[in-house]
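Give me structure tokens for this 246-residue protein.
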Amino acid sequence: MPGCASYSAQNGPLGVLVLHGFTGNPSSMRPLAERIAGAGYSVELPRLPGHGTTVEDLKTTTWADWAGAAEVVYDALRSRCDRVAVVGLSMGGGLAAHVAEVRPDVAACVFINPLVKPPVKEMVDGLVALLDAGIEDVESIGSDIKKEGSVEASYDATPLAPAASLFEAMKTVNADLAKISAPSLLLSSRDDHVVTSDNGDDIVEKSSGIVERIWLEDSYHVATMDNDRELVESATLSFLDDVLKS
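Here you go.
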């Protein structure tokens, strides 16, 4: 899809891995990634497997593919940087948590409306029932943006089998949140129609590191493209500077 390619910036010895959400692609995180790179950081924003092309491609992938890709890119960035932070939106937040859980040398985390807990049992049961009935897709979860005229280049449908793998993986991600020892910045929209704010509550309650939380009062789920974009970018940069450059 146009504008949905990975983004990379080779700068100094401090690195930042930036991760997009489920059914999304790098375009939703590109402005933030470029802002971070402009501040002198080395940045990697990968296009996760199955994303940024077609829904049919996404149907061939699972959490193992996305998490594996995130780990590979993190390891490559870490091999050439002294310290590396992870930044993620939505599922990208869950991936950021996963990377911090399995890579103890993660120096800092930024979570933007992160998904880090499985949905309620009734929702999972409903998803399974739809799959059993032969239904492969439901309506799109993309472009939950308050700002008029701002549209996310996400898929126009949500494939259920990959979603089921994502929800299953959140059981482990959530159970292991205490393994995150790095300081974190949590950016939470008051009004989010995709991921409930109690996902962020779990990061605050379970992470072993210090968590600073900022509430976004004028954005929906895709806050990186919404009315609070400047706050998201400036707060992220300030946090990264404080932690990585200290």
